[in-house]
Structure formats: structure tokens, C-alpha cells
């Protein structure tokens, strides 16, 4: 069972006490792709947890006490309140400490390492695209956007081969859930530049288009996925802030 806090906690708000110390707690932000990674793993494995959403624009002091970097996800564990953060570290930890609940990582050490390489590569590709948000007129960088998106499509095609998922199995694995939040958000770059993302994906990014379709049919993704209209609204808001020279701090 997953319990989600009713509102986003901000600076000055009192710390929400943990009432069940046996339950994992995740500090999150609704549209954060990195927090989504951890939530996908929790959902896929059916791990009981609660979610505390925080306001990353106005962070509560107690979030910074748990993660000096001020990022999410942050995982709080057990009665002694052990803390972990950084999305991939949290995801791998969850898979390792709950091995009997749908293992998500490859058994082979080299394959696990290769999966980490592709995860890091996709993260870097997404970061490069995200910097383009700060361009006043996205039409000026549309060529850069399309070139970066096509690189992602080629990279995905090479790694995926003829498989349905990068895990090589009938169900998504940790590698799929780690890159999904980035694949999920790629249409934003197209829509924000006033192009039709559905048409562009289908014609120009065929591998991304099919891979998205496969993952959108996955029950875990359906459970965790934030509606696209909410994601796009957040992207528009974040872009306005970036154009003023600000970001999350």
C-alpha cells in the first residue's frame, strides 16, 4: 500500500512525524523524473511505503537536514531513520534488499554494469536537452533539439535491438524504469517548441515512439506516471523561471 501526503511541504512547515517506523518513507516532488525512478521500483516490487511531497521551489528545512543537496528522492528507512539519496543508489538498494519481490536487475555483473552505462548516457542526453529550456526562442535551437532527440532514438535502437524492453525480458527491468522518466518527458521538448509531439515521435523517432507505447502499457508505469498535461504545465513554469536565470536551489 502507498500513502501519499495531501500537499507539498514548504519552508517553515512542521516535519510530518513518521507514525509507522516499519514503513519506508520517500521524500518526493510530483514531477521530478529522478524521484519517479525510485517510485517505479517501489511500485514494481510492491514495497509498502509512504510518499511525502515537498516543494522544491521553497524547500522545508527538514529536507535539507536529510539531504544537504536539497534533492529528491530521499529514502528514510526503519526506526533509526537511516537516510539514502540519489535516485539510482536508492533504486539499486531497494532491489537488493528485497530480492524476493520481483528482481529487477540482471544477474550477470557485466550486464548490470552495462545497464548503468546506458542509464548514465540517457541521463546526460536528457540534461543536454534540458539546458535548451533556457533559450528564449526555442525555434532558434530547434535543429539542436531534433539532433539530440535523434541521437537518443539511435542510442535506444542500438541498445534495444529486437527486444521489447532493455531488460531483455517480458517485463521492464530496473534499466527500463531508470530511463523511462526521461523517455516519458521527451515530447515536452517538441511541444514547447510548438511542434506536434505525437506526429514527430511517430515519424522521426520510431524507436522512442514504440518503446514509449510498450512502457505506457506497463501496470507499474500506469500506477506511477504523472499525467502529461501536468508534466507539460510544470515544464512551461520551469522554463519561465530558467529564462529569468533561476532554477531549483
Automatic annotation (TrEMBL):
<dbReference type="Pfam" id="PF13409">
    <property type="entry name" value="GST_N_2"/>
</dbReference>
<dbReference type="GO" id="GO:0005737">
    <property type="term" value="C:cytoplasm"/>
</dbReference>
<dbReference type="GO" id="GO:0045174">
    <property type="term" value="F:glutathione dehydrogenase (ascorbate) activity"/>
</dbReference>
<dbReference type="GO" id="GO:0006749">
    <property type="term" value="P:glutathione metabolic process"/>
</dbReference>
<comment type="similarity">
    <text>Belongs to the GST superfamily. Omega family.</text>
</comment>
<dbReference type="InterPro" id="IPR010987">
    <property type="entry name" value="Glutathione-S-Trfase_C-like"/>
</dbReference>
<dbReference type="InterPro" id="IPR036249">
    <property type="entry name" value="Thioredoxin-like_sf"/>
</dbReference>
<dbReference type="InterPro" id="IPR004045">
    <property type="entry name" value="Glutathione_S-Trfase_N"/>
</dbReference>
<dbReference type="InterPro" id="IPR050983">
    <property type="entry name" value="GST_Omega/HSP26"/>
</dbReference>
<dbReference type="InterPro" id="IPR040079">
    <property type="entry name" value="Glutathione_S-Trfase"/>
</dbReference>
<dbReference type="InterPro" id="IPR005442">
    <property type="entry name" value="GST_omega"/>
</dbReference>
<feature type="domain" description="GST N-terminal">
    <location>
        <begin position="22"/>
        <end position="102"/>
    </location>
</feature>
<feature type="domain" description="GST C-terminal">
    <location>
        <begin position="108"/>
        <end position="241"/>
    </location>
</feature>
<dbReference type="InterPro" id="IPR036282">
    <property type="entry name" value="Glutathione-S-Trfase_C_sf"/>
</dbReference>
<protein>
    <submittedName>
        <fullName>Uncharacterized protein</fullName>
    </submittedName>
</protein>
<keyword id="KW-0560">Oxidoreductase</keyword>
<dbReference type="GO" id="GO:0004364">
    <property type="term" value="F:glutathione transferase activity"/>
</dbReference>
Amino acid at each position: 500500500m502507498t500513502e501519499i501526503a495531501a500537499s507539498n511541504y514548504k519552508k517553515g512547515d512542521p516535519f510530518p512525524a513518521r507514525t509507522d517506523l516499519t514503513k519506508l518513507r520517500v521524500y518526493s516532488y510530483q514531477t521530478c523524473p529522478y524521484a519517479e525512478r525510485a517510485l517505479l521500483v517501489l511500485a514494481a516490487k510492491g514495497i509498502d511505503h509512504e510518499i511525502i511531497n515537498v516543494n522544491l521551489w521553497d524547500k522545508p528545512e527538514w529536507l535539507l537536514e536529510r539531504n544537504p543537496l536539497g534533492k529528491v528522492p530521499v529514502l528514510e528507512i526503519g526506526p533509526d531513520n537511516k537516510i539514502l539519496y540519489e535516485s539510482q543508489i536508492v533504486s539499486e538498494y531497494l532491489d537488493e534488499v528485497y530480492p524476493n519481490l520481483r528482481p529487477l536487475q540482471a544477474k550477470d555483473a557485466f550486464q548490470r554494469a552495462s545497464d548503468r552505462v546506458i542509464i548514465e548516457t540517457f541521463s546526460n542526453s536528457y540534461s543536454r536537452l534540458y539546458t535548451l529550456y533556457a533559450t528564449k526562442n526555442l525555434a532558434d535551437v530547434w535543429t539542436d533539439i531534433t539532433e539530440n532527440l535523434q541521437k537518443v532514438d539511435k542510442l535506444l535502437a542500438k541498445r534495444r535491438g529486437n527486444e521489447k524492453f532493455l531488460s531483455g525480458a517480458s517485463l521492464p527491468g530496473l534499466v527500463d524504469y531508470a530511463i523511462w522518466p526521461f523517455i516519458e518527458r521527451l515530447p515536452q521538448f517538441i511541444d514547447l517548441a510548438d511542434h506536434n509531439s505525437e506526429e514527430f515521435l511517430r515519424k522521426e523517432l520510431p524507436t522512442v515512439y514504440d518503446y514509449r507505447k510498450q512502457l505506457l502499457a506497463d501496470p507499474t508505469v500506469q500506477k506511477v506516471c504523472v499525467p502529461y498535461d501536468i508534466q507539460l504545465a510544470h515544464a512551461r513554469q520551469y522554463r519561465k523561471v530558467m529564462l529569468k536565470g533561476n532554477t531549483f536551489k
